[in-house]
Design brief:
Helix content is 44%, strand content 16%. By secondary structure, the chain is of the alpha/beta class. The strands form two sheets. The chain has a two-stranded parallel sheet with strand order 1-2. The chain has a two-stranded parallel ribbon with strand order 3-4. Strand 1 (14-18), helix 2 and strand 2 (38-42) form a beta-alpha-beta unit. The two termini are 21 Å apart.
Length: 172
């Protein structure tokens, strides 16, 4: 995702934050060709210090599969903190898990994840070996039978309300 953004926006500076040293090392390797356009740092998602240390104003904050680790209250605070750091017309872009509104929707989400994992396995490995790893690792959140203590997805409708309350004029 970072490479796609850096390629699409050749004048952007990308601040990559991750709580995992392993992931930061992977980022350093994968993003090395972008040189000083990339800054990589550690952070603790639930703490506000990383938000206070961000440059300001920001044009865009992009988050992929991270925000669901925050509690409902944590999401609301993060949305407010980020809204205060964005330049006029800036954006917060989220790609994340949401809590399904009904069990029927949960089953639909689970099926979509499985289908996507199967297609990606076929493309990347020429078969279903990677999909089998996905299944063995129980990576399909929507098929879990027990609550994961690290994951706190919130309903989309709630998150849209929190974004508006935080000052985002457009939440969609």
């Amino acid at each position: 995702l970072a490479r796609a953004v850096l390629d699409a926006y050749p004048h952007c500076h990308y601040h990559a934050l991750d709580g995992s040293e392993t992931m930061r090392a992977e980022l350093r390797e994968k993003l090395a060709p972008y040189g000083d356009r990339v800054t990589i740092g550690a952070f603790e998602l639930a703490e506000s210090a990383w938000r206070e240390a961000l440059p300001s104003p920001l044009r865009c904050v992009l988050s992929s599969l991270v925000v669901h680790h925050l509690t409902h209250e944590g999401k609301q605070q993060m949305f407010a903190d980020v809204a205060g750091r964005l330049e006029p017309g800036g954006a917060l872009l989220l790609a994340d898990l949401v809590a399904p509104a009904t069990d029927r929707v949960r089953l639909l989400f689970a099926d979509q994840w499985n289908t996507t994992a199967q297609v990606q396995s076929q493309v990347l490995a020429g078969g279903l070996s990677l999909y089998q790893q996905f299944q063995d690792a129980e990576w399909n959140y929507y098929e879990l039978t027990e609550e994961d203590p690290l994951d706190h997805p919130s309903p989309l409708a709630d998150q849209l309300q929190w974004l508006r309350a935080a000052g985002f004029s457009v939440a969609d």
